[in-house]
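In response to the reviewer comment on reproducibility (Comment 2.3), we provide here a single inverse folding case reported in full, input and output, so that an independent group could reproduce the run without further information from us. The structure tokens appear first.
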């Protein structure tokens, strides 16, 4: 071999060695995890970790029609991010590295499948560093944000019971049940911070007896406090459901309207006893954005 050929071969070998020494590790990719929800629980949680050269941790989730998909990323490491791809539409819909948000949600008019990719930027992590996280995934609809019904109980020698609460654009209905004896009158008084708050009454069969949105029984004072009164005779003992609700369009985002509900029962053919003076519950500025998540595992 000539001297020139030998030098050329040596240079190529050195270059290849340098190139091999500088090559980045091959990024690993774990198989995706299929996310499932337990019955009557709109939330599930995945706890994991990513290293410097892990490619992503992928989670696949199917969301029902009419449900909202929400993702919360809980981590102490600011270099952990997530992307979401709508597999049904074959497009990326968010990347928290770009948005800076650790929570994200989207409604789904039709059923859809998603892939959630948890990842890190390799260049900002140290060798051997492990970034832990908890990924909360929720799917919820209006029914999931509907609070459980409250049973109305009457104290001895008191024909009236009172409940108070607040409503917002997302949790826009509260249900109360009352057992009324035969031969009694059922009376309902509602005092609210908005004339857009109404109530429906349904009997034991689920048949609507009254919907005050369709009556002219609401009066409003100068302080914009609305009062609605209604009553009916009960000839056969029955369990009634009283649903207090508000038009979501009437509630500004992030706000609530307060109300006080009085439920009375007294003997028929007697004058309605006076109810204790009441006022609507104060409105709150705290929004309800989703059903509460279960306690998260600290990442």
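Designed residues, in position order:
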């Amino acid at each position: 071999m000539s001297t020139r050929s030998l030098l050329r071969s040596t240079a190529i070998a050195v270059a290849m060695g340098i190139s091999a020494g500088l090559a980045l590790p091959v990024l690993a990719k774990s198989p995706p995890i299929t996310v499932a929800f337990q019955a009557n629980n709109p939330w599930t949680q995945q706890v994991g970790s990513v290293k410097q050269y892990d490619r992503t941790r992928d989670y696949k989730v199917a969301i029902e029609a009419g449900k909202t998909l929400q993702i919360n990323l809980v981590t102490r490491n600011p270099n952990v991010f997530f992307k979401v791809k709508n597999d049904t539409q074959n497009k990326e819909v968010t990347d928290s590295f770009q948005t800076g948000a650790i929570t994200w949600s989207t409604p789904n008019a039709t059923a859809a499948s998603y892939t959630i990719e948890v990842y890190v930027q390799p260049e900002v992590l140290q060798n051997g560093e492990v970034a832990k996280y908890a990924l909360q995934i929720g799917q919820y609809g209006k029914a999931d944000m509907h609070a459980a019904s409250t049973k109305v109980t009457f104290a001895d020698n008191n024909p009236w019971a009172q409940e108070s609460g607040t409503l917002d654009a997302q949790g826009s209905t509260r249900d109360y049940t009352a057992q009324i004896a035969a031969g009694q009158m059922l009376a309902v008084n509602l005092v609210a911070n908005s004339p857009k708050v109404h109530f429906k009454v349904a009997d034991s069969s689920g048949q609507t007896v009254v919907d005050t949105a369709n009556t002219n029984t609401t009066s409003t004072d100068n302080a914009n406090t609305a009062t609605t009164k209604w009553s009916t005779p009960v000839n056969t003992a029955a369990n009634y459901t009283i649903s207090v609700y508000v038009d979501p369009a009437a509630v500004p985002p992030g706000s609530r309207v307060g109300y006080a509900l009085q439920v009375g029962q007294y003997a028929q053919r007697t004058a309605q006893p006076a109810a204790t003076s009441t006022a609507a519950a104060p409105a709150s500025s705290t929004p309800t954005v989703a059903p509460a998540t279960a306690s998260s595992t600290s990442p």
